[in-house]
Amino acid sequence: xxxxxxxDVIVRFGGVTAVAGVSFEVEERQxxxxxxxxxxxxxxxxxxxxxxxxxxxxxxxxxxxxxxxQPRHRMAPLGLGRTFQNLALFRSMTVRENVxxxxxxxxxxxxxxxxxxxxxxxxxxAAAEDHARSxxxxxxxxxxxxxxxxxxxxxxxxRVEMARALIGKPKLLLLDEPAGGLNHGxxxxxxxxxxxxxxxxxxx
Length: 204
Ligand SMILES: Nc1ncnc2c1ncn2[C@@H]1O[C@H](COP(=O)(O)OP(=O)(O)O)[C@@H](O)[C@H]1O
Ligand SMILES: [Mg+2]
Fold this sequence. Notes:
By secondary structure, this protein is α+β, with helices and mostly antiparallel strands. The protein folds into two domains: 4-78, P-loop containing nucleotide triphosphate hydrolases (Rossmann fold, 3-Layer(aba) Sandwich), CATH 3.40.50.300; 95-174 and 182-201, no CATH class. Helices cover 38% and strands 17% of the residues. The chain has a four-stranded antiparallel sheet, covered by helices on one side. A two-stranded parallel ribbon has the order 5-6. 30% of the residues are buried. The site of magnesium ion (MG) has 5 residues, from helix 1.
């Protein structure tokens, strides 16, 4: 069974057909690219896969489960992480805080355990901090860990989004326009980074 199955997905916005019947599969650990000119429907399809939009028709299955119409906060625990073409970071928060926010979307200790600072919640917090440290190292963000995101160049902010998605331990990481807005050096770095990520994280 494929990790991600997209079947006959159609998305219409009023009179505009943004996605016109798309089907494909992604296997575990597969690196798969979605290409098409501006306006081809790539971001719309990502929004359907990650549960932000409900398709007009068709179906998306992730790890064997139907995801169509699932609220999006259910998607991260299923193992789906993503970045956004226009970035969706907490701009006044530091790099480290943004990355940890991705772990909190994921925590299993529950609201009450967290509020009461029970041992399970404290252990989860310590594990998240360790994990954040190793991701900041992998993504070359250690030097800017305590800097507010708004003060950083676009290419660096994109790596912060990647770290925030990775801390949720996704099985599938969707990167929307990962090279968009980057300079040549950053694009070269991205290719190396993508290989490092797959080697370290066992994901598609
Ligand atoms: N929320 C929306 N409402 C109306 N039209 C939209 C919306 N989102 C995307 N579109 C339209 O759908 C088409 C596909 O857009 P998009 O998915 O952003 O393409 P891509 O990411 O490949 O550049 C475009 O014609 C765009 O204008
Ligand atoms: Mg797009």
